[in-house]
Design brief:
Layout: E1 33-34, H1 49-59, H2 82-97, E2 102-104, E3 114-117, E4 126-136, E5 140-147, E6 150-160, E7 162-168, E8 174-180, H3 181-194, E9 199-200, H4 205-224
Antiparallel strand pairs: 1-9, 2-3, 3-4, 4-7, 5-6, 7-8
Helix pairs in contact: 1-2
Length: 225
């Protein structure tokens, strides 16, 4: 499909598309879990009703577990034009309203290699097109992650503490990001999305099973309305 084309929600990637990774309807023992790209929201009771309403409206636009696009490998961004920059702005707005700190294009149904993140409410927005990890540290740490696409799921994921990432900004200019700690974790989480990998794919078998139970219950609640 053309670069930047939005995949209709719930639709499969066309047959024969080499970018499709795995089967989104895997049995519980086959499914593995993806990493959290979200800032942990305050308890809902402490949130302003307007904030809650904006969050819920934003989350309605985020693709959730079971949507084939989340297991699809994204294609390189080739055109750095006004449409791409508008997409970055829309993704940033959606991420902020959803109380997240990172968002990949595939999470909103666009199959190209683009992610945005903002680590801290006062931090500048970062947009990375065609990101690639040039170097990662041998030092790794385990931390709990969550994901806007995996409602109510939190799992432990081990990742390198430091990374150097080569990418392009929304204007096509080459950039290099040296990241550590939370920023490094968010970038790696979002880059996993671009490969069709979820945080549950990187956690322990026991946590994956627990996550699958939570996700099945969530899906059942959605079906029952």
């Amino acid at each position: 499909m053309p670069e930047g084309e939005r995949v209709p929600e719930g639709d499969p990637v066309p047959e024969g598309d080499p970018t499709l990774v795995g089967d989104p309807t895997l049995a519980p023992d086959d499914v593995e879990v993806e990493l959290q790209d979200d800032r942990e929201p305050e308890p809902e009771a402490e949130l302003d009703p307007e904030v809650v309403a904006r969050r819920d409206a934003a989350l309605a636009h985020v693709r959730k577990f079971g949507d084939p696009v989340l297991k699809t490998k994204a294609r390189p961004v080739e055109h750095f034009d006004d449409a791409l920059r508008d997409e970055v702005r829309q993704m940033a707005l959606l991420m902020d309203d959803a109380l997240g700190i990172g968002l990949a294009a595939t999470q909103v149904g666009v199959v190209h290699r683009l992610l945005v993140y903002r680590v801290g409410s006062e931090a500048p927005l970062a947009a990375l097109a065609n990101p690639a990890i040039e170097w990662s540290s041998k030092d790794e740490e385990i931390a709990e992650e969550g994901c806007l696409s995996l409602p109510s799921v939190h799992v432990d994921v081990e990742r390198p503490v430091h990374v150097r990432v080569r990418a392009q900004d929304e204007y096509g200019e080459p950039i290099t990001i040296e990241a550590s700690g939370l920023e490094a974790r968010v970038i790696q989480h979002e880059m996993d999305h671009l490969e069709g990998v979820l945080m549950i794919d990187r956690t322990s078998r026991d946590q994956r099973k627990d996550a699958m139970r939570i996700l099945r219950e969530w899906q059942e609640q959605q079906r029952s309305g």
